[in-house]
Amino acid sequence: MTVYNSLGKVVDIHTHVYLPSLMDILRNRLVILPDEEQDESLTKGRPIGSEYWSTPRKLQFMDLHNIQTSVISTANPWLDFLKAEEQIEAATKLNKDLSDICLESDKRIYGFGILPLYSIKASIEEVNRIKGLFGLRGIIMGTHGAGKGLDDPNLIPLFAEIERLDLVIFLHPHYGIGNDKFGPHDFGHTLPLALGFTFETTIAVSRLILTGIFDKLPNLKFLLAHSGGTLPFLAGRLDSCVIHDPQMAGKLLEKPSFYLKKLYFDSVCYGESSLKCLLNFTSVDNVMWGTDNPFFPPLDVQNDVYEKPWLSVVENYDCMMYLDVADREKILWKNANRILNLEL
Ligand code: URA
Ligand code: ZN
After folding, report:
1. Residue whose CA lies nearest to ligand 1 atom number 4
2. Which of 75, 156, 183, 221 could form a disulfide with 168 if both were Cys (CB 3.0 to 4.6 A apart)?
């Protein structure tokens, strides 16, 4: 794999883990996507091997793909399925555990913490704790926020505190949109992951922007998973719909695309034309590379042992190859180093 050796430093900012204490809570469920719970035609849950929770496995994966540094985050469904009091206890423990992993990793691992979002007061306390924890650079949040979406006004004090602390919110989908079947076929997880996830992000972020949050909190930093869903492509349409809507026209200081362009995006889009669309929309200074590990593993693997690079990772390297080295380096590590203050 010559590509890997020629690339220099690589930081993976989209890489997940279910820490052992979350595994203990999840073990009775082993259900990740909502339709795994509802659809009797799907096998309940999915096999969860050690690549989902073990730090040595994460480091092995990083070594296999020439990744020097990873900013790891708890994977969906985070703590969304717990009650507020349970979330508070779990978040504090998980953030401490995550920070300990960072501390022991000799700067190979940084992290995005997790919040007990059903209590805004406790979340504000937790972001302050996260700010002081070794290796943590922000938080991961689902599109439902505290249960009512990102345009929920209750979130504003939390967003204000996150802006004040200069932490990054890594926004990630989980629930999917439009997953109900339109026809008789079962295509597995293909459509929920390819389209449901990306439209979920698209809708949640659009709603957030339409509240005018970035007029109030212009320095609030969001990192959007999966290259912003479909937003780089649909931003022009969103702008035009605002201008032509009597209820919305004049409500925001700027067009939606003005705020959107200033957000951060991962480059997890698996294709050159998608990456080009993203980079035509936002600046190359706003895009950071990722893998979505441990998801999208090769299907042809025996006994959970990965010896060859994963196709999903190779695709996200390959789609950048048309860029010059300077831009590639920005996406691969320099932007992450600057935005997440990684000391590389
Ligand atoms: N599937 C998930 O459940 N989560 C991800 O982040 C990617 C794929
Ligand atoms: Zn992910």
Report:
1. 76
2. 221
